[in-house]
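@channel sequence for tomorrow's demo:
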Amino acid sequence: MLHLEPWVLAGYVACLALNLAFSLAECHLWRLRNRAPDPAMPAMTVWPRVTIQLPVYNERYVIRRLVGAVAAIDYPRDLLDIQILDDSTDETVAIASSLAAQLRERGLAIAHVQRAERTGYKAGALAHGLALAQGELVAIFDADFLPAPDFLTRTVPFFADPRVGGVQTRWSYLNQDESGLTWVQSFMLGLHFCFEQGVRCRNGLFLNFNGTAGVLRKAAIADAGGWSADTLTEDIDLSYRAQLRGWKLIYRDDYTCASELPADMTALRTQQYRWIKGGAQNARRHIGNVLHSGLPGRIQFHAVLHLAAGSIYLPILGAVLFSIPLAALKNTWISLDYADFGLLFLASLLPLFLVFRETRRPRPQGFLAHLRFIGAMLVFLVFTIGLSVHNGGAALSGWLGRRSEFVRTAKFGASDWTTTAYAMRRIDRRVVMEVIVLIAIVAGLLIGWQRGEYAFFPIQLMAAGGLLWVIGLSVVHPFRAWRNRAQASMRAEPATREVVP
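structure tokens (generated this afternoon):
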């Protein structure tokens, strides 16, 4: 008779080991945090020509804000041209065309560029625009970003170094206090933007252009092979190809570009799926290239960690799932009280408290500030574990090489997102799997309670709370959008009422 217990135990221990390895690798970055200063901005004597690219697809609520901010950028007008790379299929086309015409009358070199087909999605639009670009540098802004007037004067000088292929700025957020959902997103993204990117840059490690709020050298893009739609995160793909070719990326930790966080759960799920799956696709594509690059071991180690970082959701999900049968199988094969090893999962998370403290600006000072930070970390961990079913599935799909469509994240600007045309009014089908996992976790809790095995309760309670949060918003938000959109439509005059898609 086949004993399941040793295989389940082995899987659980493997997941714990991977989680611990990730935490310890982050701690190694923490040790490097003050080894070198931020790159100094060189003096600029001759300013290069810059093309600003604005890839948009159905962005009627933010296109005016975006174009207005870009038009206000302070840079010599004879050295600047702007491309609105518009793949839209709704009224965004008319708005963008009108804005471009008005700005041309004011003397700004701006083109409204449209393609016959949306081939290659964002990567295809950028490649199409690049063939028309006049600048030797290319600045890129997604529709939900708001560059400040000094953006180019604070980034372009770094290209005085001919080895620099790109400059990335730190993201800041216009709506991080809008809701608990936007707040927890800003906390999550802090690990990448307020810690990892800066440490990597200061220590000569690989980092990535984030697809927006940055500037790239046109020659570096061409030398790396150009934009490719082979993965869902074309920015990571290009970044690694360029760095493996010897180009250097600069991260401006001390300069930010404002952006908008997804306000509803459906938009967040779309964004997370694309980021996590795209990260796994790039890990599958580039880890071998990194390991055979001949680069120093430290650079290779952190490059592999960087590429595989999003896949950490797989061992998180694995630890949760394996904990359920382990509580039931205890003492059916061996007498070792291995259920107590469940506490090791929490131990593997403790180093992250140290790392995330570096992301807080200003850093927590005083007892109450530290207490609030610990509370924030617990909330973040609960939400992260709650996302593990959705994001773990995305990572697995990426590692398996499955193709999927590039789905853009809806942006709503200052509008009430529940009444907009882009608000999703259908529940994501992946919620079904999350509900199944939640039922299994509740069953595991009941089994543990019945058998007096409580060591797995911390991880299972955190997972149950996180899944309730994720599932709840995934159901409530589409319902609110459907209800409010219907009410808004009923209040509208028949002549002006917009057809609900």
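heads up for whoever presents: The chain has two domains: 5-30+312-481, 50-261.
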